[in-house]
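tool=predict chain=A
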Amino acid sequence: MTELGAGQTRPPGRVSKPPPGLYLVATPIGNLGDITLRALDVLASADLVACEDTRMTGKLMTLLGLSAPLTPYHDHNAEQARPALLARLRDGAVVALVSDAGTPLVSDPGWRLVRACIDAGLKVTTVPGASSTLAALQLSGLPADRFLFGGFLPRQANARRAALRDLRAVPATLILLESPNRLADSLADMAAVLGSREAAVARELTKLHEEVVRGDLFALANRYAESGAPKGEVVVVIAPPSEAAPLTDDDVDQRLRVAVDGGASVKDAAALVAAESGFPRRDVYARALRLFRMGNA
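tool=predict ok
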């Protein structure tokens, strides 16, 4: 595999300039060979390339032998930058919108620019290609006929668990992004809230050290708690809810251990597991006291 930065270039052929408008151009997520011929043509012809980070996109453009002007467009400047982009488009420019890697608009502010273009009657075209979320879904081995992309979960544990509770009943495979440094804690919360669902942790997709680790959420939480934070971008894919049998006492014990290992007090762990399992809080707390006083955790 050829990763970005490996020094291979692939200059575009000679093509006619596309019609004016906004082009949503997918870029490689790691392997330079995943750039499409159409993306090369659009980027070569663009009057302006709007990007999250001009340094990242500048590196990609250099590798591809391209030299279109770049302008930043990201969460922090979108409101100020959008009017200038719309003005260029009204003047008949070809503007390409890219993210740092993968498909634009997925976890970035590009959709507001698209909406503004639609409202103004300006042409918007997609140039599809690489996507870490779809790549992870493909490699997960989990149902792909119905899925929900949930983006990044909140950083704080309470907010993260609340977000997971909102997703718990969704009858679809879940796709979530996560920071490597928060992965173990997030997996522990996923296990506590969602139960022992099958899941996959995908990282470094399309790169030399691509890895997909599969297992139930409890096993994955324990694995990354022991091994520490992995390297690279991380996508977590979680199976949809099943009509599984009610939780057993062993299931409750396992959830209690995951919650306590994640930093919760015995009392808080019992409250969390009771809320997620539907068992009486008093019974779960009594079980937690027996479990941890007996030293079986």
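The two ends are 44 Å apart (CA to CA). The beta strands are 21-25, 48-51, 70-72, 94-98, 124-127, 147-152, 173-178, 198-203, 211-216, 234-238.
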